[in-house]
């Protein structure tokens, strides 16, 4: 019987956020110790797949800590080292094992650590020696370093953005690691650096074809996996940038060639593949004149899923100034407003100061007299599709109405994935002109059924796509599109 060790340690660090990530952030989002009985779920819990597969195979499973948090600023040194050392201690105790599976996000930065995953894997390798296979599941928004490659046996990422295939990717990694442990394959990883930065959603051309042709292909002999690492453009670190990560079966030469081939294909399409944005004012002009309603607006620059606060008011102000449209917003993060609204109760009319509080990118608060449409304590939302679907917490929510605009507010900083929270409050999304979602891409999978028209709006904010104006200090240069290469 095989014995395996499973743990998770992930965060997607936004270097430009001043909100340092501490243990409290992990405790609030996902921190499951081996002794904890509560089975909490998180958005990309690839480790859940690992556990289920291992159980089905009747493997002996040693569970380590599962630590994951929503994107914020860098981890404090103490937080990173505490969780790293905790998992390493668990691995030491679990030895000997047949293999180790880690669910890593891959873009974690801490004080004094630009490459947390490299450091983490290097520490694990030092403890387990060269023989024990070490597999890591990555989000494509990872920064992959040579140190990570040198210390892991297989690293692979999800292929889709929105990440609808994390469970599938976890299964792929599990099966490959099983083969490694049996001596059936000898993985060799190789990296090709595309020297590029950006946001590249995969549902539409040309990314759709690229993913289908190069990342999901299954018939390339001796190529075990090909992952496109998009990198996280708001993570300012020396390993940032788009890379092709190829794992071959013992054929480094072939791996190098294939990675270069795929990388060059990506470079050819990167300009066209880059997500396009409209400014707020143009988006509003388009909505007012469009016969098609409702239109979904993605408020990408205030997406909590990328490290923003989720309380920016720029779009709300613009819509209020137009006075013409019926709009709905989800989800504003404002704990102070939620306290006041919950104290007043459903049906109450009260004054609140909404948003504009959490960061220099939040704009200013909007003072409004609202009617409380409803309260939803400990609300949830659906993420994922089919058998991979799960319910995730969205905190204590309330729906309020102000001048024909309905707004969902929560005391939890959370990205919206599905329309469930609107439905919970009895809001019929088909009756609005504008549906504003504080998300960049993950909302797409479920909102595409409500509106065929989606506008990606670039308001001022911490997730600005105007990379030329971000105060990078550490990313490798030259890099496209900042430099002419
Ligand atoms: Zn991601």
Question: Total number of helical segments?
Answer: 13
Number of strands: 17
Helix content: 25-40%
Bin the strand percentage: 15-25%
Query: What is the arithmetic mean of pLDDT?
Result: 92
Summarize this, please?
The protein has 485 residues and is of the alpha/beta class. The chain has helices at 23-29, 46-56, 77-94, 116-128, 146-151, 166-182, 207-215, 252-273, 280-289, 314-322, 335-344, 420-424, 444-447; strands spanning 3-11, 30-32, 60-69, 99-104, 134-138, 154-157, 187-193, 223-229, 243-249, 295-299, 327-333, 349-354, 366-383, 390-402, 405-410, 434-437, 454-457. Zinc ion binds at residues 139-141, 163.
Task: Walk me through what this model shows.
- The chain has 485 residues and is an alpha/beta fold.
- It has two domains: 3-273, no CATH class; 280-464, no CATH class.
- Helices cover 29% and strands 25% of the residues.
- It is built from 13 helices and 17 strands.
- It has an eight-stranded mixed sheet.
- It is globular, with a radius of gyration of 22 Å.
- The protein starts with a strand and ends in a 28-residue tail after the last strand.
- The structure holds zinc ion.
- Zinc ion binds next to loops.
Write the layout of secondary structure elements.
Layout: E1 3-11, H1 23-29, E2 30-32, H2 46-56, E3 60-69, H3 77-94, E4 99-104, H4 116-128, E5 134-138, H5 146-151, E6 154-157, H6 166-182, E7 187-193, H7 207-215, E8 223-229, E9 243-249, H8 252-273, H9 280-289, E10 295-299, H10 314-322, E11 327-333, H11 335-344, E12 349-354, E13 366-383, E14 390-402, E15 405-410, H12 420-424, E16 434-437, H13 444-447, E17 454-457
Parallel strand pairs: 1-3, 1-4, 4-5, 5-6, 10-16, 10-17, 11-15, 11-16
Antiparallel strand pairs: 2-3, 7-9, 8-9, 12-13, 13-14, 14-15
Helix pairs in contact: 2-6, 3-4
This protein binds zinc ion (ZN).
